Amino acid sequence: MTILAQLLNVPDDIDSLVQAAFGAAGADGQAEASRNEPIASVLYTIHSNDLDPGGPQIMVEAEVVHDAKFEGSPSLQIRLAHNESQSGSVASGPSGRPPTTGGRSLLGYRPAWTPALVREPAALAEQMRVRWFDALAELKDGVDPRMATFLALFQGMDSALAVLTSAHSPASKFVVLQGLLDPDGLIQYKGLGLDAATFVDQIRAADGGDEEALSWLEDIQREQVLTSLAEVTGTNAAAEADFHLTRWSLQGAALIKAVTTKTKNAEFEFSEIRSILRMQADLSRRVEQRRARIAEMKASNPESAERLNSMLGYESRRPSPGTDPEYGILEDYFFEETRIYLQARFRQSLPGQFAAALIASSNAGASDVAFAAAVRAMAAASSTDPKDYSADGISTPSPWHDALAKSLGISQRRYRSGDRIERILQAVKGVTQAVKAAGDDDLGTLVVAHEVLCYAQWKRDEFRASKQAEKVEQHKADAIERSRKAKQRAEASRLRDEQAQEVRSAVWDVDDAVRRYAQTLEHTIRSIRVENPFPESHLAAAKDRLEKALAKKAAADGWLAAADERALWAVAEVKVAATSSVEELLLAERDEAVAEQSEAKSEQQAAQRERDAAERDVTDLAAARYKFDKLIQPVLAENERRLEAETLRHKQEQEEKRRQAEELRKKQEAAVRRQEELNQRQQERASVAKHALGMEIDRLIALPTSASIWRRKRLAATRVSLEQAILKLQAEITAPNIPPRTHWKTWPSMLSANDRYLGTVKKIMDYGAFVSLPAGVDGLIRFTGAGASLHRGQMIIVEIVAMPSGKPFVLRQVAPRA
C-alpha cells in the first residue's frame, strides 16, 4: 500500500487508493472524475515513470473489490508484478517490453471481458485467472484479434500466438496460455490452482460430497487439463496421471456399455412405464402438498380438515403400477437407467481415481493390487444361478404387466426379452470376464465391475434377506399356532381338573353315601334306587384324563423341540444375516424363540402335574368303588326284596287293568253293533218314506189352487190331510246316529239333489228365505220376483238344487199346478 501510495502520490490510506482507482487520481491525489454507479470490482496496473530511465522500473497491479450489499469499506488487493533495474537492456530486458518512443508508455490491451488495461503478457495471464469464466467463453467462441496483436508486440510470444490459433480445446488453450504468458505465475483452472495442495483439497472435498469439487475434477479429467499442464510446465507426473485418467475413463465407459443395452435393442418400450412413474411421483407430491394444507386447516376448520384427510387417505391408497412388487426397480433390467446409474457411480469414484493417478507409482502399486484382488474375489464369489436372485429363477409377469404389454402392443416374446433376472445374470457374466482380463492398474474396468458386482451382491443379499424374513414370519406364524393350541390344551386341562375335583371330594364320603341310602330305605316301605357314586364312567374319565395328560406332555415335548429348533435356526442365521435390518429381525426372532422355549417348558411341567393327579385319581376311584360295593351289600339285599314284591304287585295290577279293558272293549263293540243295526233299519225306513213321499208331494202339487165354493171346504181338508201325511213321512227321514269311534262307519246322507220336500220357512232375509228340511237340514231360497210373498212359518214345497259342503242347501220353490 505504501509503494502504491507513493507511485500515485496519494495519502497512504485505503480510501485514497480506492478513490484513485475509481477516479484516475492526479498528482495531487484528488479524483478527477467520479462514477455515478457502484462498481463491484476494478483491476488496474500502475507503472513507474517511464520517462526516467535511470529510476527503477516498477509495475504494481491492484484490484479493488466492493460489494454494494456490504456497508463497510472496499477491499484492496495489491501485487508487485515486476521490478526491473536500469542495467538491463530496454530492448531485450526480462520484461520483454519493447522500447518506448516519444516518452509514451508501452501499447496496452483491454480484453473485452475485463475493464482492466494490461501492458504485459503476465498481466493478461492474471486477468485470465481472475476472470476465468469470461476468458474461457472467449476462447471457446473465438480469439479476439486484438489479443494476437497485443502479444505480437512482445518477444517470445510466438508459442502463445500458435496456441491461440490452434485447434486445441478452450480448456487446453486456457492452461497453456497461462504458462506461456506468465512462466513464473501459478497456473489455475476455473479459479483454482493446478498444484498439489489444491488437488488434495479438492479430492477430499469431492470425496466428502462436495458437488462443486467433484464437477471441477470431472472437468479436469474430461478436458485433459493435466496434459495441458504437463505440456506447458514439463511435469511428467501430470502427463502420466492424465494418461491413466483417460484410460480408466475409456475402460469404464466401454464396460458400462457392454453390460447395459438400449430398450429398443431389447424390443422393450419403457416410455409408458416412465410416464406412469412420473404420474406416481406427481401424485405423491400433490398428496404431500394437500397434507400440508390440511395441517394448516385443522386449527380453523377441524371438520373439513378431517373430511379432506379421509379423502386424501383414499387417494394415497390407490394402487400404482410402479409399486408392484413383481415389477422391480428399473435398474434390474440393465437398460438406460442402469447405464445412467453406473455413469453416476463412476463419476463419484473420480476422487479415488485422481488420488491413484497423482500418487507416485511406487506408492500406488500396493493399493491397486489390493483393490484388484478385492474385485477379483467379488467376481469369484458372484453367482450366475437364477435361483440366487428369485425363488423360481424366472420373472413371472403379473396381471398388471400383461395389461400394460397389451396396451402398448408388446408381444409376449418382446416382454420376455425384458426379464430382469436374465439381465442381471448377463451383467454379472460380462463383468466377471472383464475382471479376469483386466490388470491391476485397469482401474476403470475394476471400478465399474465393482459397482455391478456390488449391485448383484445387493440383489442376492436382498433376496436372501427376504427369504430369511419370510422364514422368520413362517416361524412366527407357526409359533402363534403352537401357542394357540397350547392355550386350548390348557383350557381343556382346566375343565378336566374341575370335573376331577368333584369326583375327588366324593371319594372321601363313601361311608356317608352308604349311610344316606340306608336311612332313605328305613323311612319308606318301597324300594329305592341305589346308584354307585363312583360309576364306571368316572373311572373311565380318570383314565381318559391320564391319557390326555400324557398326550399333553408329548405335545409339550414337541413344542419345546420346535422352539429349540427355532432358536438354533435364528442363532445360525444371525451369523449369516444378509442385511443389517434382517439381522435385527433375526435377533428378535431368537429372543422370541427363547421365550417360547420357556412357555413350552412350563407346559411340560403342567402336563407332568396333571399326569400325577390323574394317576392318583384312578387309584382312589378304584379303592372307593371297592369300598362302596362292600358296605352297600345289606342295603342292596333289603332293597332287592322290596323290589321283587313291588314287581309282583305291579304284575297283578297290570293283569287286572287288561281284564277291565277287555270287558270295556266287548261292551263297546256290542253297542256299535246295536247302533249299526238301528241305523240300517232307519235307513230302510227312510228309503220307504222317501218313495211314498214322492207320490204324496206330487198329489199335493196336483191339487188345484182354486175351486167352486161347494168344493173349497173339501179341497182344504184334502190339502191338510196330504200335508199331515207328508210331514209324517218326512219325520221318518232322520240322520243316523254316529257309532263309537272304535268302529267308525260313514253312513250315506238321507237327502239328495232333485228331492222335493215340504219345508217350513224359518227366517226371511233381504237376499232370501231359510227353509227347514228333514233330517235337521236347512236350505236357502234366493229371492226372485215372487220371493217377497213368503212369510215366516209358511209351509212350501221346495226342490234341492245343490248341496254345497259346509253351506245351506240351495233350494227352489215348487209352485202348485194351476
Labels describing this entry:
OB fold (Dihydrolipoamide Acetyltransferase, E2P); elongated; alpha+beta; 3-stranded antiparallel β-sheet; 818 residues; Four Helix Bundle (Hemerythrin (Met), subunit A)
What report would you give on this structure?
By secondary structure, the protein is an alpha+beta fold. Among the domains are: 271-328; 475-631, Four Helix Bundle (Hemerythrin (Met), subunit A) (Up-down Bundle), CATH 1.20.120; 689-813, Nucleic acid-binding proteins (OB fold (Dihydrolipoamide Acetyltransferase, E2P), Beta Barrel), CATH 2.40.50.140. Helix content is 61%, strand content 8%. It contains 25 helices and ten strands. The protein has helices at residues 2-8, 14-23, 121-130, 132-141, 145-152, 158-164, 170-181, 196-207, 211-222, 225-233, 236-259, 271-297, 302-316, 336-348, 350-358, 361-381, 399-408, 412-416, 420-437, 443-507, 510-522, 536-575, 580-631, 633-702, 709-731; strands at 41-47, 57-65, 75-84, 188-189, 192-193, 756-764, 768-772, 778-782, 795-802, 809-813. The strands form three sheets. Strands 6-7-8-10-9 form a five-stranded mixed barrel. It has a three-stranded antiparallel sheet with strand order 1-2-3, with helices on both faces. Strands 4-5 form a two-stranded antiparallel sheet. Helix 3 (121-130) crosses helix 4 (132-141), helix 20 runs antiparallel to helix 22 and helix 22 runs antiparallel to helix 23 (580-631). The termini are far apart.
